[in-house]
Amino acid sequence: MELDVVELSRLQFAMTAMYHFLFVPLTLGLSIIVAVMETVYVMTNRPIWRQMTKFWATLFGINFVLGVATGITMEFQFGMNWSYYSHYVGDIFGAPLAIEGLMAFFMEATFVGLMFFGWDKMSKVAHMIVTWLVAIGSNFSALWILIANGWMQNPVGAEFNPLSMRMEMTSFFEVMFNEVAQAKFVHTVSAGYVTASIFVLGVSAWYMLKGRHIELARRSIAVAAAFGLASALSVVILGDESGYSATHSQKMKLAAIEGMWHTEEAPASFTAFGFPDQEARETHYAVHIPYVMGMIGTRSLDTAIPGIAELEQNAITRIRSGMIAYDDLMKIREAKGVVDESVKLSFENHSADLGFAFLLKRYIDDPRLATEEQILMAAEDTIPTVWPLFWSFRIMVGLGFAFIAVLGYFFVVTNWKGMNYPRWALRMAVIVIPAPWIAAEMGWFTAEFGRQPWTVDGVLPTAMSVSHLSVTDLAITLAGFVTFYSILFIIEMGLMIKYIKKGPYMDVAETEEWTRTHERRLSTLGDPVVMPAE
Is the dihedral of CA 179, 181, 183, 186 positive or negative? Predict the structure, then answer.
């Protein structure tokens, strides 16, 4: 692939976005887990829970700071690398990002200081409220960012102004309650809860294998297993909702994820395994599960899901319609809006397909002059590269079911086996720590790569969205970002490992004294110190 300005801009944004997303899931989930632990401390007044809260909050803080640093860099790119995109859709896209900065991030950043430094200056209840506000702020930040992103996937509540050449918001309510945005939000935050649960479970399992901080570890496992299992089950349910919404708003993405080259007779089967061949337009060695895709995509047994070939033909029709809209647009702009009502009516009838005419600009400056061959090439561009989507989705789903198995096992052992964790299970919990990040990156890749060739689905092609930069400019900044982010990654891993090895160093004496004082009562209540089983 030739790395031109468009591809380098995509590569740079993809690198920064996926790196930033390494921090987001842990921030979302760990903030809630820390708040839950502090709530238990306030309810029970046991110092061990305060010690747990402070320890996991320290790891949350490290992750939070580096997540903020990488997130700020991403937002700068909208103006630097994607200036035409910012001009075209800034009226809609900018609103949720502004609200996120003014409301959610402001609340989160304000109260995070009180959470870390207010332990001895506030009452227990007040500090617990602060911790919950940090958690709520973190999740609200995700909400507004995903509302903005969801609009890019399903642009509702807006219309195109032919005089300003911009999309303008017509309904903030529709933008906010966009079905794709809401499905992405609940699915993303649930995945973050799973990520944090697996992280807490794995670190706690490592402590038990080492015979250190057993009381903290076993209680942390109990919280992580219960919270994580509920979250992992919800991820599956909410992921199903995302698939259903894609049936209405992003049919090509859904067909590419499934490797469905042609429309199947309803209800469509789910391809569990196979090797998509884009050139031959078939999936080799496909293993199908009957009815499943039809149920996920349509919630019925009699509605077909269109295949890639049929959607490509539909794109040809929309390109031709878009060419009419483009011709009307040029007439309106040349006359500064003073045109016959017939032109305005024609534009209104075809404006929904204007973005498809813009696909032709990759091949010709004036889409009205496009040849039949160029129309066919533009229609083919609406098909994303299938095999990365096919496999990234299946890796994500496979790992999701693996998390249910792991968390379910620890939930059962915690509640019905006396917390007698076998060493093989503890080792498994440590090994699986990186897996949620792999699943999260695969999910994010599926969502964003599957939207290509669009920046805003059906409205603005990616090739039109970039700034007028040189390849040299982009290559230099890309190298700079890679270097900067690599340094941040080393810092993150170094600090995380340092403080995990250090362990819960705060309130140790008080916690141990309380445990000795109440040892007999704890034993009577069935709360013994359980060492890992061989």
Answer: negative
160 φ/ψ angles, rounded to the nearest 5 degrees: -90, 135
Measured CA to CA, the distance from residue 383 to residue 395 in angstroms comes to 21
Interacting residues of 19 by C-beta distance below 8 A, sequence separation 6+: 70, 485, 489
Which residue, chain included where needed, has tokens 């039949």?
A: 372
Listed residue (256, 207, 237, 295) closest to 500, CA to CA: 207
Q: What is the pTM of this model?
A: 0.90
CA distances for 51 relative to 48, 119, 122, angstroms: 5, 12, 17
Total H helices, total E strands in the chain = 22, 6
DSSP one-letter code for 284: E
Domain ranges (residues) in the chain: 5-250+385-509, 308-381
72 vs 260: CA distance, rounded Å: 38
Mean pLDDT of the chain, nearest integer:
87
8 A C-beta contact, residue 325 and residue 347 = yes
Q: How many other CB atoms sit within 10 Å of the CB of residue 154? A: 23
Alpha helices in 262-418 (DSSP H): 292-298, 308-334, 341-350, 354-358, 372-381, 386-416
* Tokens read off for 493: 């891993």
Work out the burial of residue 66: count CB atoms within 10 Å of its CB; fewer than 13 is exposed, 13-18 middle, 19 or more buried.
Answer: buried
Cα 203 to Cα 145: distance, rounded to the nearest angstrom: 30
Each residue of 442-451: pLDDT tens digit? 998 998 888 8
**pLDDT digit string (tens) for 70-85?**
777 777 777 788 888 8
Asked whether the beta carbons of 37 and 55 are under 8 A apart, the reply is: no
Run of H or E including 161: strand 158-161
Please, which pLDDT band fits residue 534 given cuts at 50, 70 and 90?
Answer: very low
Which residue in 485, 448, 462, 450 sits closest to 188, CA to CA?
Answer: 448
